[in-house]
Amino acid sequence: MMKRQDYIYQFQDEAFQSYQKNNLLLDVAGNVFEQVYADVDFKIRQPDLLGKTVKATPLQFSSIFYMVEDLSDLAGIESPAIYVYEDFYYGAESYGVDQYWIEISAKTIRELKENEIRFILAREIYKIMDGVTKTNTIMKEQLKVVPDKMKKIIQLSYNKWYRMANYSADNFGYLACKNIKDAVYSIIKLVLNSIPLSEEVNIHEFILQASEISGLNDNIYNYTKLDESIPYAPYRIKNLMSFAISDRCMKYFR
Amino acid sequence: MSLGDLVARYQEFKYGIINDMADSAEDFVNDTWFIDKGNIISKANYYKSEIENLDRHIAKCNIDQDALNNLKIEKDKLQYSLAYVLSNDIDYVSESLNYLEGVNSSLRDCIYGIEEHLNGNEDDALKLMEDNYGYLQESENHFLINKIYGILLVKEGRYFEGLPLLKIALNLVPEDIECYYFLAKAYENTLKMDEKKIVDEIIDLLTTDDWDF
């Protein structure tokens, strides 16, 4: 089993402590949101999942089912349910607070390589394992009731932590798929939502876009950047390459 | 309260948050430690602006000698930081030395080492790096010094010494192909073939057929 310290993004835990300090609702409301989610939202979602998507089992989308079992074993967690739905976009996302599941688009399964799918699913397995999915689910519940004035403050603090959790997810995904090219192209395909477009990308040139983002530095630019919950793709690729040559990562390749 | 008043109050509040959150410490805005031209220019502009502010204070401060000395010390620190930031990019190496004029520091001598390397004087470059790198403050945060020194060591066949420096450089600028090339060479010559394979995969990902080292 992989050790958390071997893939966790450097500043993530500090950012989470900062988010907890900024989110007063966590002190005031305690487990209320978690309970409401379990009692209401989870139950609202389940019939739709079973009625409008295809659940991966040993007899349906079996390769995906066994892939998730394998990844769950790697992470040391119970295998979550997997639901496949039709969509225009590539993507997969995990949900839940104590009973978890992953929703993945059929387009992802149809068009991406097996190892790219492995990278994408591994990211969600990490999020479930490390409590990111649970925190994200509860956060979405909170945003439904929190006053507007508090929302932005909590959101910006949360986004910072969630961006870092996504870097950790990428690191874990890379360790699971063991191929830098598959990991990088998974990110590019998800961002561009097109294989022909992805084939046009020159990776080195694409990464240099990060420098242009860094150069955009005033209050409005910075606010826009802070308002993103997912890191921009050029930074994700830089992080993956930096992680790939680190000692803590390379030991899994010897 | 009219609708116009409400909108104005909301805008004021929204921009208040924007100003508070986005204009805060750089640590909150930046998630990563990576160095690129964009953030070098941003940081350099910030330091230059702070130095200009200090110069204005120094110009006004002609009575209190202690206060004047403190301002000058503050200015020296800012100039050092500015030189440190600028010297991370080949295009600004010469400019960085302007801010270290008259200053006897390991940073200045390491930057001279970069210049010697760029001019093809590799023996002189290596000597300057060897004599000064160990005394450099925050050596683990400087991309170009670690890159150049690492490359020079690998070229000398000192692979075990060059390896960690190239990794420091790549941790800061993960897209530098020249660093990867020399890192691969160091791994090959130290028989770390699993590590070399990973580096080769990254080189393959970053290069097109007509890449010129």
**Main sheet properties of chain A:** 4 strands, mixed
Distance between the termini of chain A: 15 Å
Question: Judging from the principal axes of the Cα atoms, what is the shape of chain A?
Answer: globular
Class computed from helices, strands and strand pairing of chain B: mainly alpha
Q: In DSSP terms, counting alpha (H) and pi (I) runs of 4 or more, how many helices of chain B?
A: 11
Helix and strand succession of chain A?
Answer: HHHEHEEEHHHHHHHHHHH
Proportion of beta-strand residues of chain B = under 5%
Task: Please mark out the parts of chain A with pLDDT under 50 across 5 or more consecutive residues, or reply none.
Answer: none
Q: Give the oligomeric state of the chains in this entry, treating copies of one chain as homo and distinct chains as hetero.
A: heterodimer
- N-to-C SSE string of chain B, H for helix and E for strand: HHHHHHHHHHH
Rg of chain B, Å, rounded: 22 Å
Number of strands of chain A: 4
Category by helix and strand content of chain A? alpha+beta
* Protein chains sharing the most extensive interface: A-B, 46 and 39 residues
Count the helices of chain A. How many? 15
Keywords:
heterodimer; A: 254 residues; alpha+beta; four-stranded mixed beta sheet; 15 helices; B: 213 residues; mainly alpha; 72% helix; flat
